[in-house]
């Protein structure tokens, strides 16, 4: 239930993001979702990919600072109010969030990527409330 | 006025005789009190008795800044601590500062040479001298202070910073002489114009500027903006502090107080003396100091010596404005910065070799130090606040070690150019 997110340090300069996507494309790694956290002079690219270990190794070989981070992917129906329900559970169970982002899939609803301060606790609480979580093996289908 | 005409206008032969006599005594003192220097002399089979005149100076071993570090803090002092009445310190090449100690006689001599330099600059007892060099471990403030008192002029011991107050006191007290770094002088002129004050309405007539390198074009700019005569003064704490040498009103090189501080110019690669008048590394031997006399100290400053008699009447040898350094030391807002110090800070924060690049820019009138650090694995975190925290910590640790602020920028690995496997550490973009 715990998914490895790939995080890459990027400088704020032209062409850096495409360098990463090009390297991953050539390595046959699919990117399901990504987000960029940015400051005035650097950013962190966070990605959910089909093969996190391979993505890390390939990017490291190409000189990037890379790290994997444990995240939780919660599936919610693609309809109004479902994100609010998810957040209410997290609030009620006092799951603290470092950051989160989301992507949606045509048929299977939306997926929220959550980076909690305590990963196992977050999984436990969401399962308690019957929230559907994405498994690692499912990601290859995306 | 010439403060000590007998010395400052002595013939070359007279000067050589004085220097030779004093050198003999200094060599004896060091040989018998400083084991590390004695070992250096023994290594080349030299005894104190082998030094008979100033011409024998060139046979003696050199002293480097690292010798001071290796003997930190007081190991190079030749008198018991009960004789030391003050210490000063400047930044060393790594974490430890370079410490110097002064006896009562040293302080008197120092005040006297600073008085000479003030007279060279055209300052008299009728002047009001605002000392805007930092007071404290740095030699600039207290060095100028006691020299000014010794002359009999009025000293305003305001120390560095507090720019609006500096200007207010200039107006209210009628300051006629300002002593500070040249970049601070330009900053003063900017703040004056912001405050709507015309320097021509002030009483300023002389500026004594030192502690960092500056060019002739900067001199013209300062003179035009502050409406004063800009005089270059030179010194370093290892030798004494300010007052080692200073320009006279003719502004044609700095007269060295060579009866106390004997200069040589060497080729930094071969260590041999250069041809007279050629540029090389400046080396000083102190021949009257008691606390921490030093023989053949390599300043790493590049300059040349002029032995012609000056129009002012002084025969004291002159040194030209320093043309650069034979090492990688940077002088930023009067503070000595060695890249190795930055490296020490970064090493303390991680276990592997950090890759970094220091850039110095002159923004407006002030020097700005920028540090680019590669975010290697050991520094990288997935969270922005960790990385922002890392930036802050680097900035803070450098500030507490060097006392100057630095702009830190985190960059990707391998973005800093490596030349022949070794990274280039410093880019100095200042036009000075």
TrEMBL record, chain A:
Pfam families in UniProt: ACT_8
InterPro entries for the chain: ACT-like_dom_sf (IPR045865), ACT_dom_pair (IPR045739)
Transmembrane segments: none
ACT domain segment(s): 1-139
Record's protein name: ACT domain-containing protein
Species whose genome carries this gene: Draconibacterium aestuarii
From TrEMBL, chain B:
Domain called AMP-dependent ligase C-terminal: residue spans: 334-430
E.C. number: 6.2.1.30
Enzyme class: ligase
Keyword annotations from UniProtKB, A to Z: Ligase, Nucleotide-binding
Catalytic activity: 2-phenylacetate + ATP + CoA = phenylacetyl-CoA + AMP + diphosphate
GO MF assignments: nucleotide binding; phenylacetate-CoA ligase activity
Family according to the record: Belongs to the phenylacetyl-CoA ligase family.
Gene Ontology biological process: phenylacetate catabolic process
Organism field: Draconibacterium aestuarii
Lineage: Bacteria, Pseudomonadati, Bacteroidota, Bacteroidia, Marinilabiliales
Pathway membership: Aromatic compound metabolism; phenylacetate degradation
InterPro entries: Adenylate-forming_Reductase (IPR051414), AMP-bd_C_sf (IPR045851), AMP-dep_Lig_C (IPR028154), AMP-dep_synth/lig_dom (IPR000873), ANL_N_sf (IPR042099), PA_CoA_ligase (IPR011880)
Residue ranges constituting the AMP-dependent synthetase/ligase domain according to the UniProt record: 87-285
Complex formation: Monomer.
Xref: Pfam families: AMP-binding, AMP-binding_C_2
UniProt protein name: Phenylacetate-coenzyme A ligase
